[in-house]
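In practice, a research group might receive sequence data for several interacting partners and want a quick structural hypothesis before committing to experiments. The following worked case mirrors that situation: the sequences arrive first, and a predicted assembly follows.
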Amino acid sequence: MNNQPVLQITQLSRYFGGLKAVSDFDMAIAKGELVGLIGPNGAGKTTVFNLITGMYKPTSGSIKYLGEEISNFKPHQIAQKGITRTFQNIRLFASLSVLDNVRIAYHYKTDYGVTDAILHSRKFSRIEKSVQEKSMQVLKIFNLANRAYETAKNLPYGEQRRLEIARALVSAVETNEDKPRLLLLDEPAAGMNPSEIKNLMELIRFVHEKFNLTILLIEHQMKVVMGICERVVVMDFGEIISQGKPDAIQNDPKVIEAYLGKATRAC
Amino acid sequence: MTSISNIKKQTSKIKIILLVILFYIVLQLLMSAQIINPYWQQIICYAGVMTISALGLNLIYGFTGQFSLGHAAFFGIGAYTSAFIIKSANFSNPLLLIIGLIAGCILAGIIALLIGLPILRLRSDYLAIATLGFGIIVKVLFDNADAVFPVLGGSRGMVGIPQLTTFTWVLVIVILAVLILRNLINSAPGRALVSVREDEIASEAVGVNTTKYKTLGFVIGSMFAGIAGALYAHLYAFLHPQNFDFLKSIDVLLIVVLGGMASISGTLIAAVVWVLILEGLRVVLPEAVLDWRLVIYPLLLILIMIFKPTGIFGGKEFKFLHYGDKNE
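A structural hypothesis for the assembly, expressed as tokens:
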């Protein structure tokens, strides 16, 4: 049982009309792995993410999280199970405070009802207080505590990305170490300058260890992929064309072909 | 540190309560002394009714981000329900109005739930059109209601409704509505509502059941409209389907947008100002240009959209309406 993969995808396909965005996709991720998912634009990487998180329903195939079939679950149910994600274009609750962004992610753990809220019951005050404390704790871990009351959209780009990751990891901060969690990062380094990228790589390494996370990462910046991923999966036209250790796939002719095109005899 | 801010909070709370009581006593005295004549008394009550209804729409549109054009329908459902019950039972004690208010509120809520579950899957423009359609259906039903319940009067209007709405009733419900909305917004369910407005996809991705919260916002907002409608029915003692057509939904929308989306304070001010000016201009303006007062508001709306698109109070609140953690 201990060797049960955190995520087991088998024969996963998703077609948009005649377009095979993802076809016969197989992947298993073991607990604690940090896997990179790369491929040229339009290869279907983000579609895989959307399938895992329930934003799209698969045309066929299965997705198992800790042995449980999740392909028919709604996105919020999957998030509550412990699979959270960030987005290619940062999606924060832009006009809310940094603190509120994190507090909303605590939402499903705040188990008081609307009546408690309206009547300001004792239960409400107790839970609100603990949510407030826990959220501040999360912000401290991610070095955002001094920004707590600022509006999210006013943060610099790097901090917005950090906040998005913090929000995705809210429930990991307090759950016990045994419960595995899966974090999906969709191009976290997009649009970042070299020093921001360096910080981001440190952050990903840090959360990976600290919260005992399993991470699947889409990235175009090869520096990031080669620097932090233990294993890389390469996609093209909705299919896996190669996988292995970062330095191995770098020299795989199929991968080079996918990115650069086929070498033809010079005329 | 905390105890000082606590005491400060307590004293400002007491100040607000005293202020409201003072406001009530002064107005009540002015009314009983006939300094405010019955015509203006009715207008003041109507301002309160519009405030309650607009607070409901602000919850749906301003806070939850669901564009609804069917608000007047729920207002009408509340009005006809309460009028039907109170008139049939022939109640004349103002205290018994509570039965009509609760019935109107609950029926509006139930219908909002039934209609909300299918249509809240739609987004923005599509939702607006669906709610518009719902509003038209309800108006047609009111028009022909006399076929089933002759007492409702159909398109001839419903007359002889006991006039039970008093200034006290209106003020109490306004205060309750403000408190309920404030407490709701500053809680986990409230934050979930706002997160739906901010980004529905991100909201789902952090585990918020967006369908549930959109429906919750829609139902509670419509219940506000229902109770406001019930007060309205017993204020004017006459109901006509035309009072609940989609133009009336636009009126409420106007108040919400003018006052500021997601601002309770803005809605309070805009609703009161809207009613008082609309009626005030009736007195001030000469007969010949009287109808032009209906042009002033749309004009104001355009100007505000150009110069302050977030509305007068956009996103801001009076101090007593937010509490807890802002910049402490």
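Before designing any experiment, note the following. The interface with chain B takes residues 53, 55, 74-76, 79-80, 84-85, 87, 91-96, 99-100, 103-108, 110, 112-114, 116-120, 124, 127-128, 131-132, 149, 167-168, 170-171 of chain A (CB under 8 Å). Chain A has a mean pLDDT of 89.
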